[in-house]
Amino acid sequence: MDNWNLLGHEWAVDMxxxxxxxxxxxxxxxxxxxxxxxxxxxxxxxxxxxxxxxPDAPGESCFSCRTCKQIEEMKHPDLAIIQSVDDxxxxxxxxxxxxxxxxxxxxxxxxxxxxxxxxxxxxxxxHEANDNASNALLKTLExxxxxxxxxxxxxxxxxxxxxxxxxxxxxxxxxxxxxAVSADLIERGVQGDxxxxxxxxxxGRPGFARRLVDDASLLEKREERLNDLQSLLPAARVEKFNYxxxxxxxxxxxxxxxxxxxxxxxxxxLRVTGAETPLIxxxxxxxxxxxxxxxxxxxxxxxxxxxxxALEKMDRNVNSRLLAEVLLMDLPKV
Length: 334
Known about the structure:
The chain is an alpha/beta fold. The protein has 15 helices and five strands. Helix 5 (131-142) links the parallel strand 3 (119-123) and strand 4 (148-154). Helix 2 (39-51) packs antiparallel against helix 3 (66-72), helix 10 (216-232) crosses helix 12 and helix 14 packs antiparallel against helix 15. The termini are far apart.
């Protein structure tokens, strides 16, 4: 358990372990990086180290006491999980984290811990918080009680209020070497070639790689989205409009589709520039080489920029149908 039973991010574990062992724990931490990289897992391991009943050493966790097990399952009485919800109030990625959730957390946080040294509030995907929720959290960060530790996860600190970021200890988690992710999958029983492919598709994100193993539908959906893109490139305007209409009906699915397409076009851009960076979509290498041979640097950069811009506009609630139509009409003619 030298690395808190985590794959990678040794530097972050070492820093957090020292904070606990020396009694130098900050009141707020921000774990940033792309989804599936280990933000939530690292935050939970930190919560275990803070509250473990039988630590082997200061800053360590036993992983077997009642507290460690409850935190692992996110069901500990002194651990509050706050994350975005849909219109019905059900937790959902891509939803909105609301101000009433922050206020409810504030009331709980002010109470003394029920059974552990610290009350921990874990805010998942805080980049999905609306403006009112962000401003409400700022007040808590300024006036947090001594027994409270606030942990935030987010894709990118630059997407949050600077006043929130400035009050947090920031840990920027980076993708792991593909070989490390592949080796982890092989240990879990995945065949060598498949492990290598999944490591590439995950982009060095171990959590996402494991999800790809556990849920075959994720790979199937990815395959479907990339096949759709291939069909759309030579398609007539009416076909693109029809697809845009279908795509815009489910905002979360549209976001996931654009993310898959963006990874594909970034691979094309890599091949256009001659970069030696490993491809994400390794199984589509021939298609990517074909497209790279027909696009110049300006065109490749533009299509990547168009997809990045579409994702940003989705976060600002721009009309999804119009957004999808513009994106598809601007696809390169190859």
